[in-house]
Write a structure and sequence with these properties.
alpha+beta; 4-stranded mixed β-sheet; 3-stranded antiparallel β-sheet; 2 helices; 7 strands
Length: 108
């Protein structure tokens, strides 16, 4: 449980680094983010969507990508995804921050 807090997702000027425990599972360049929206429960997410949940918390933010990115599972398997669903503590703040980074990348 502690690793879920000790290794949070990281936003840098160039990309979003998504982590599960100490492992970085995906690196998403901001230029590939096409939309960021708050969401409700995902009934049956498609295989093309990376879902990162927290204990007792379903995803509440959805990121759509203009192109697929590579994702690595905890067991080392790789796949391509075009969407990401995240469970974040403060979804409205997260959506604003993610949109801001994506918009800045699009403007350059």
């Amino acid at each position: 449980m502690a690793t879920l807090r000790a290794y949070p997702h990281v936003l840098t000027a160039d990309m979003l680094h998504l982590r599960v425990a100490p492992l970085t599972v995906a690196e998403v360049p901001w230029r590939l983010v096409s939309s960021v929206t708050p969401i409700g429960a995902l009934a049956d997410p498609p295989r093309s969507c990376l879902v990162i949940e927290r204990p007792m918390a379903p995803p509440n933010v959805r990121i759509e990508l203009a192109e697929p990115v590579r994702v690595v599972s905890l067991l080392g398997a790789e796949r391509q995804v075009t969407g990401i669903a995240l469970a974040l503590e403060h979804p409205s703040d997260a959506v604003a921050a993610l949109k801001s980074h994506a918009e800045q990348a699009a403007a350059t």
